[in-house]
Design brief:
By secondary structure, this protein is α+β, with helices and mostly antiparallel strands. The chain has 2 domains: 2-35, no CATH class; 40-131, Monooxygenase (Up-down Bundle), CATH 1.20.1280. 67% of the residues lie in helices and 12% in strands. The protein has 3 helices and 4 strands. The chain has helices at 37-73, 77-103, 107-131; strands spanning 2-5, 12-15, 21-24, 31-34. A two-stranded antiparallel sheet has the order 1-2. It has a two-stranded antiparallel sheet with strand order 3-4. Strand 1 (2-5) and strand 2 form a beta hairpin. Helix 1 (37-73) packs antiparallel against helix 2 (77-103). The radius of gyration is 26 Å and the shape is rod-shaped. The termini are far apart.
């Protein structure tokens, strides 16, 4: 058993150890919540997953594009064009995911996509500078 204090009347109440949910105080008959941390921890985990989705999906799409370019087109001038387009896919997808996350008010999604955009745009810029 665990003893909690009613938030309304400050009286002690005994609850089971695994108590979770909405309870009524036997002293003042007011309702209060107890043990809802599990849901909050779950929501925080889901929210942090949005960051990783925004960060990794553009890179994974680019990697898939590069692998398909090597497998289907091979090493030719056409393959070079397709590889170049696959590299441009990362910043474009990151930008799209970032805009979607901003519009749907999912801050961790657009933050992850912004990081992916910054990294991929920097790498594309270095690639262009190196090609010149």
């Amino acid at each position: 058993m665990v003893i909690v204090e009613c938030p309304h009347c400050d009286e002690d109440i005994e609850l089971p150890d695994t108590a979770d949910g909405l309870f009524e105080c036997p002293h003042c008959n007011e309702e209060f919540e107890w043990g809802v941390k599990g849901e909050l921890e779950y929501e925080a985990t889901v929210q942090s997953t949005y960051f990783w989705i925004g960060l990794l999906v553009p890179f994974l799409a680019t990697c898939c594009g590069l692998v398909l370019t090597v497998l289907l087109v091979g090493d030719s001038w056409d393959g070079l064009v397709w590889a170049f387009l696959s590299l441009l896919l990362c910043p474009m997808m990151a930008l799209g995911i970032g805009i979607y996350g901003y519009i749907t008010t999912q801050p961790l999604l657009w933050i992850g996509a912004s990081v992916a955009f910054a990294i991929s745009a920097s790498l594309c810029l270095l690639l262009f500078i190196g090609a010149m």
